[in-house]
Design a protein that fits this description.
Blueprint: E1 8-9, E2 13-16, H1 21-24, H2 34-41, H3 49-52, H4 67-82, E3 86-88, E4 94-101, E5 104-114, H5 115-119, E6 123-124, H6 131-144, E7 146-147, E8 151-155, H7 159-168, E9 175-178, E10 184-190, H8 193-204, E11 209-213, H9 215-230, E12 240-247, E13 253-254, E14 256-260, H10 268-275, E15 279-284, E16 295-300, E17 303-309, H11 324-333, E18 348-352, H12 357-365, E19 371-374, H13 380-388, E20 399-400, E21 410-412
Parallel strand pairs: 6-11, 8-12
Antiparallel strand pairs: 1-5, 2-3, 2-21, 4-5, 4-10, 5-12, 7-21, 8-11, 9-10, 13-20, 14-18, 14-19, 15-17, 16-17, 16-19
Length: about 425
């Protein structure tokens, strides 16, 4: 039976003219520092970074959470609307969104997802959020009266959903952009009533969607909706949040690797011997990129090792503790290196797999770090199992690539 409320719905997207899409599209607000954003946006007045990271247009010493930043963001958005660079579609639409990174291709749906279903956990979470980061997104949404950073969602296998979205890609796109990092972003508008109705029907019977990336954005959208309800506002577009939904099987999680500053007072020999009580340790003449769950690479004192965990140390019945990143924490980081709080301990750092294993070697070889661990990527099935169990992933468990662009479609609130 279909639920009484829609899981997703079409919306009147705010998006750049086709000829301006490349100039507008920008990396997500949270993958660049302010300094990196300032440099990337130099000489690019249409870049969405002027909206998503408006501090780049203000004095560097200003607090990035100051009211002036949100006001500047709203001013910059209005400037692009007034100049005709950003246009709002006349009728509610879905949009197909294709990402191409090398030979990897994934095609999904841009839609407004239900806040009520997020609140009831039909749209499932797997991370804790930080209040300060939620506050930032709430202020940004309220200042713009729009959601400009999409939440990355995954849907369970659905041949029909994939087929319907693929049909839209046979038409001419409304945006086709190859970003500075070589990733291609292509958007198609889906506005005919029949296609919209069919897509809505297919998604409305899905049992769950899963947040892959964007927990702070979705939490902020829920808070904005609750605040507006509390003021007696009639339900409107704030009851939905901007999302891009891909088939889980198409999504790509890369490894999220760990580097540690010291060996907690242990000698190299003592440390390797202690690791050997938990993992089978095999020296390697080349960098170790783990080929399966239960295996990780370790780089220490100029030497790579292949580590294979002994099965008795893996609690298979627990979807969180059986993750490779959890096993590493429980067997090495905590008991041997004294690192028990991954969020706050300054002795550990995390390196996305997009940077390669040479970055691990560099951080150890230059003396900044003592040891590096190359992880096997967390799998989507593992993420979904954790979310289904109502649990949360350890910090820095997933690194999704390719990443969505900001600015190609935004969701304006009533």
């Amino acid at each position: 039976m279909s639920p009484t409320r829609p899981l997703i719905r079409p919306f009147t997207g705010l998006r750049p003219r086709s000829e301006d899409a490349a100039a507008v599209a920008a990396p997500p607000y949270d993958v660049l520092s302010s300094e990196e954003a300032r440099e990337l946006a130099t000489g690019k007045p249409l870049s969405f970074l002027h909206i998503s990271k408006a501090e780049i247009d203000l004095p560097p010493e200003l607090d990035h959470y100051a009211p002036e930043v949100y006001a500047k963001s709203a001013e910059n958005l209005q400037r692009l609307i007034d100049s005709g660079v950003l246009l709002r579609d006349a009728s509610p639409c879905f949009y197909a969104y294709r990402l191409v990174m090398g030979e990897h291709v994934q095609t999904g749906l841009v839609a407004a997802a239900s806040v009520a279903d997020y609140d009831s956990n039909r749209i499932r979470k797997h991370e804790f959020t930080r209040p300060d980061k939620e506050d930032d997104r709430v202020r940004q949404i309220e200042a713009l009266n729009a959601q400009t950073g999409p939440v990355l969602l995954a849907h369970p296998d659905s041949t029909e959903a994939e087929r319907l979205i693929a049909l839209a890609t046979e038409n001419a796109p409304v945006a086709d952009v190859t970003a500075h990092d070589g990733i291609r972003h292509t958007i198609w508008k889906i506005d005919d009533t029949d296609s919209v109705a069919r897509i809505s029907a297919v998604f409305d019977v899905m049992p769950n969607l899963y947040i892959a990336d964007g927990h702070h954005r979705s939490a902020a959208a829920s808070r904005v909706a609750a605040a507006r309800r509390g003021k007696g506002n009639a339900p409107g577009s704030a009851e939905f949040f901007l999302s891009v939904i891909f088939p889980a099987r198409q999504m790509r999680i890369m490894d999220y690797n760990r580097v540690v500053r010291d060996l907690n007072g242990l000698s190299v020999e003592t440390f390797v011997a202690a690791v050997g009580q938990r993992y089978a340790v095999t020296p390697s003449s080349s960098a170790v990129k783990p080929e399966k769950t239960g295996v990780c690479g370790m780089y220490l004192a100029g030497q790579w090792y292949r580590l294979s965990i002994s099965p008795e140390f893996v609690p298979q019945e627990n979807p969180v503790r059986r993750l490779d990143v959890s096993v590493l924490s429980e067997q090495i980081l905590g008991p041997l290196l004294g690192i028990t709080d991954l969020r706050r301990d300054k002795r550990i750092d995390f390196i996305g797999g997009i940077r390669g294993l040479t970055e691990l070697e560099r951080r150890v070889n230059n003396g900044e770090m003592a040891v590096a661990f190359a992880m096997h990527p967390t799998q989507m099935a593992e993420l979904m199992s954790v979310a289904d169990a109502g649990e949360v992933m350890p910090p820095k468990s997933t690194w999704f690539e390719p990443k969505l662009a900001d600015g190609l479609v935004s969701h304006v609130l009533d």
